Amino acid sequence: MTACVRGLLLQGNQKLGSSIHHFDLPAVVTCPGRSPVCESACYCRRGRYLFKPVKDRLAWNYDQSQRDDFVKRVIAEVRSKGVIVLRAHCSGDLYSKAYAEKWLAIMRACPKVRFYLYTRSHRIDDIAPVLAEMAQLRQARIWYSIDGDTGVPASIPPGVRLAYLQVGEDEQPELVDLLFRVRRLRKKRIPLSVLCPNEGPSEKAKDVNCGNCRKCWE
Ligand code: SF4
């Protein structure tokens, strides 16, 4: 097998800011816990995600994630690039138990890195226990993504927080830790401290990114 020199981790994007690294997968096909709401509202099915280089990159990432050397290569890159914060899956999700276990192994091997991810794979019976293990790690921040279709999970492991995707004005989610809104709702002012400040109605929202906000990963 030939050595692979292309990197798995990218650094920064408009939402994350310049310092957070990320690893991404093709959306929908890697999202076994997806709901009709999230599939229809998914930002990863629009805009730049439709460009061929982006699609090719995500397909390549998916292939790499299935290789036996994936864990070893991510760990090596974390160390060589001096990664401080790593978000798994700006696009895509934990698509199988075996793949989720790879991320658990990566997290365990890198206790000084801060990992965070949002996932609907908590809806998949054999992936949920792996998420519960991740949530026990000091270096991991695990968010269960929920919406009007999924409802609130019956069981929420210690350390897991809830991020709700609002698609309708009349939705009034309770007991969530974070609220994301689809673009057409973002002009409305709502008095909720859980609202992602990057999605607020004011011009100031443009200056907020995950690097300077820190709410989801600190
Ligand atoms: S709440 Fe902050 S850290 Fe979380 S997604 Fe929004 S901007 Fe990023």
Structure, explained:
InterPro entries: Gp88. It comes from Limnoglobus roseus. By secondary structure, this protein is of the alpha/beta class. Helix 4 (97-109) links the parallel strand 3 and strand 4 (114-119). A seven-stranded mixed β-sheet has the order 1-2-3-4-5-6-7. It has one domain (10-213). It is built from six helices and seven strands; from the N terminus they run E-E-H-H-H-E-H-E-H-E-E-E-H. The chain is globular and about 45 Å long. The longest helix is centred in the N-terminal third of the chain and has 14 residues, at 52-65. Bound molecules: iron/sulfur cluster. Iron/sulfur cluster is lined by residues 178, 196-198, 208, 210, 213, 215-216. Iron/sulfur cluster (SF4) is lined by residues 178, 196-198, 208, 210, 213, 215-216.
What key phrases describe this protein's structure?
218 residues; alpha/beta; seven-stranded mixed sheet; 7 strands; 26% helix; 18% strand; globular; Gp88
**Total beta strands:** 7
Share of residues in helices? 25-40%
Low-confidence stretches: none
Give the domain tally. 1
Q: Nearest-angstrom radius of gyration?
A: 17 Å
* Small molecules (ligands, ions, cofactors) in the structure: iron/sulfur cluster
Derived structural class: alpha/beta
Portion in strands: 15-25%
Oligomerization:
single chain
Across the major sheet, the strand order is 1-2-3-4-5-6-7
Number of helices: 6
What about the largest sheet?
Answer: 7 strands, mixed
Distance between the termini: 39 Å
Average of pLDDT:
94
Inertia-based shape: globular
Order of helices and strands: EEHHHEHEHEEEH
Organism: Limnoglobus roseus
Pfam families: GP88
Protein name: Gene product 88 domain-containing protein
